[in-house]
Amino acid sequence: GFSRAMVKTMSMAAKVPHFYYLEEVFCNAMVKLKALFQKENADTNIKHTYLPFLIKSLSVALSKYPILNSTFNEEVNELVYK
């Protein structure tokens, strides 16, 4: 049943090594750019966020290093790039 499937999934996840990465980034220029966008925006109801900057930087990084978004197919013993 459900419990058996959950145990199987958790057991499989325990076999796969996880990857963590930490980097300190100085975002002073991005903070200024966001403030400039907000200041020049005629509609005060629209609030600019950092999300577009994050999405763009992650998409560039994943394009350059696709292995960071890969999975491991245990049946054929190979990496699957997404």
Automatic annotation (TrEMBL):
Keyword terms, alphabetized: Acyltransferase, Transferase
A GO term for molecular function: lipoic acid binding
Names of the cofactor(s): (R)-lipoate
Location of the 2-oxoacid dehydrogenase acyltransferase catalytic domain: 2-82
GO cellular component, one term: mitochondrion
Top-level taxon of origin: Eukaryota
Protein name: 2-oxoacid dehydrogenase acyltransferase catalytic domain-containing protein
